[in-house]
Amino acid sequence: MRGTLIIILILKMSTGFCQSDTNVVVNKNAKLKKIVFESQEVSVDEINEGRIARYADSINCYRRGELPYFLTEACFDYRRSFWPSFHSPISVRWSVLKQVKNKKALKRILNTNDPRLKRTCYTGKQDAYGIVVPDIEKSFFDLLKERYDQL
């Protein structure tokens, strides 16, 4: 009880000191300015399209060296933040690859023969919720080759 009273007393004193600034001049006749914030509504789909476009750009701009990191993620399709809803899975990898237009970059990536591109996330079983992601049985290498053949 005594400790609580001391804390309250200290708080009262500190706020009293903070509010005792006499150098502040307030013009009581001044009009208040209204601050208006305008914002356009941005949908999750638009945000995801931008994120997917950045992934596609990293493939389109590939010359040589280290592969874009996401290409080595076998389970990239399970990034549920890209899905329209939890029960509507999409192939995020294919969504990215559909936006890739640089056939030479795809060929350079395929020619790296990086074994990480050939890994799959497919286990042969459905997940606990029965959700099946399209093309999950394919590796990134398979999808890259498919896109290369399309172009």
Q: On the 0-100 scale, what is the average pLDDT?
A: 79
Provide the structure class. mainly alpha
Beta-strand segment tally? 0
Spell the H/E element sequence.
Answer: HHHHH
Count of the domains: 1
The coarse overall form would be: elongated
Q: Kindly state the percentage of residues in helix.
A: 40-55%
Radius of gyration equals 28 Å
Total helical elements: 5
The major beta sheet can be summarized as:
none
Give the low-confidence spans. Answer: none
Beta-sheet strand percentage? Answer: under 5%
- State the end-to-end CA separation: 78 Å
Fill in the keyword field for this structure.
151 residues; mainly alpha; 5 helices; elongated
Short description:
Helix content is 40%, strand content 0%.
Characterization of the model:
There is one protein chain. With 151 residues, this protein is mostly helical. It has one domain. 40% of the residues lie in helices and 0% in strands. It has five helices and no strands. The protein has helices spanning 2-18, 44-60, 92-98, 103-111, 140-150. Helix 2 packs across helix 3, helix 3 runs parallel beside helix 5 and helix 4 packs antiparallel against helix 5 (140-150). The chain is elongated. The relative contact order is 0.13. The model has no long low-confidence stretch (mean pLDDT 79).
Could you outline the blueprint of secondary structure elements for this entry?
Blueprint: H1 2-18, H2 44-60, H3 92-98, H4 103-111, H5 140-150
Helix pairs in contact: 2-3, 3-5, 4-5
